[in-house]
């Protein structure tokens, strides 16, 4: 079931035939969002669907403020980013399977109950963004992954979305996890073995193990693009390098795109012969998934391509100023 049809299991549409010509707001809630690229992307995507809606930023971690803005009549949906992805989910009426299993919410949308009450539904479109970025750039990725492992670098919320996306839609034989902190990996393994009993996760925590294991086909990076300094960071980088240098190559996705989508991980993978997808492509696909739930229409491909081009130019300009 696609995400739009799934959304109607929670209620009917709040939109009317004139809704796109009436002012509505979608809002981003987070702690450090002044440099977010989401307003640029959503502005382009709304325009491509002829919706005169606005996308604004609300820099807060206050759940009461979130609830008040969420339930305003002119709010059509929200984006939720760090550190609110767990706490703000508690203010919503229902959570989708993705949000439940991943344990984090990054998107809310509105549906209407049979009695006319507005319902606020939380979901996770980070995982959908990963799936769509891979599927659009490499349609054969699912069949190529069959029988091979995948790998996630990191231990935070984005890593959990990556684990879910890989296991749900690409069918790897198992998923390796590489991270600087062993405790974070232990939490991920504990969480997913309860949420998805059939999942197969393997913590790669030594050079010897990395050398012995076959190369994964898909690797998803979810960590900042910074020079490793702490022992755990150095070890994590060395393990990743071992996998990238193996003779079997595949596809690497790096969700990090600041200060540039051309991260050290992306450039290393390209130098070793891997196909790559940069983080800005994933971000655009996340925004497209949110738009589908808010506007309730499939994306305008021309608008998607405009968004991809615009974010490419934006990140080039920012990098040139550094």
Automatic annotation (TrEMBL):
It comes from the Eukaryota. Residues 28-107 form the Shikimate dehydrogenase substrate binding N-terminal domain. One of its GO terms (biological process) is chorismate biosynthetic process. Signal peptide: none annotated. One of its GO terms (molecular function) is shikimate 3-dehydrogenase (NADP+) activity. Pfam families: Shikimate_dh_N. InterPro entries: Aminoacid_DH-like_N_sf, NAD(P)-bd_dom_sf, Shikimate_DH-bd_N, Shikimate_DH_fam. This is Shikimate dehydrogenase substrate binding N-terminal domain-containing protein. The lineage of its organism: Eukaryota, Fungi, Dikarya, Ascomycota, Pezizomycotina.
């Amino acid at each position: 079931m696609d995400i739009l049809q799934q959304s109607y299991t929670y209620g009917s549409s709040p939109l009317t035939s004139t809704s796109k010509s009436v002012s509505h707001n979608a809002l981003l809630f987070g702690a450090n969002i002044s440099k977010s690229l989401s307003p640029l992307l959503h502005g382009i995507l709304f325009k491509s669907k002829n919706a005169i809606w606005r996308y604004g930023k609300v820099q807060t971690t206050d759940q009461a403020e979130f609830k008040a803005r969420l339930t305003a009549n002119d709010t059509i949906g929200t984006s939720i980013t760090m550190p609110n992805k767990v706490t703000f989910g508690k203010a919503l009426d229902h959570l989708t399977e993705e949000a439940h299993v991943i344990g984090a919410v990054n998107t809310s949308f509105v549906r209407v109950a049979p009695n006319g009450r507005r319902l606020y539904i939380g979901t996770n479109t980070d995982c959908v963004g990963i799936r769509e970025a891979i599927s659009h750039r490499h349609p054969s990725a699912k069949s190529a992954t069959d029988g091979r492992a995948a790998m996630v670098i990191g231990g935070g919320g984005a890593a959990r979305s990556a684990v879910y996306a890989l296991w749900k839609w690409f069918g790897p034989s198992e998923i390796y996890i590489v991270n600087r902190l062993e405790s974070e990996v232990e939490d991920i393994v504990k969480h997913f073995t309860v949420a998805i009993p059939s999942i197969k996760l393997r913590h790669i925590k030594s050079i010897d193990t990395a050398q012995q294991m076959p190369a994964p086909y898909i690797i998803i990076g979810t960590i900042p693009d910074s020079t490793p300094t702490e022992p755990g960071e150095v070890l994590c980088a060395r393990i990743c390098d071992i996998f990238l240098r193996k003779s079997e190559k595949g596809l690497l996705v790096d969700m990090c795109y600041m200060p540039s989508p051309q991260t050290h991980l992306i450039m290393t993978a390209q130098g070793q012969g891997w196909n790559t997808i940069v983080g800005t492509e994933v971000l655009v696909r996340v925004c497209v998934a949110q738009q589908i739930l808010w506007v309730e229409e499939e994306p305008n491909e021309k608008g998607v391509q405009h968004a991809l081009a615009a974010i490419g130019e934006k990140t080039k300009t920012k990098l040139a100023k550094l």
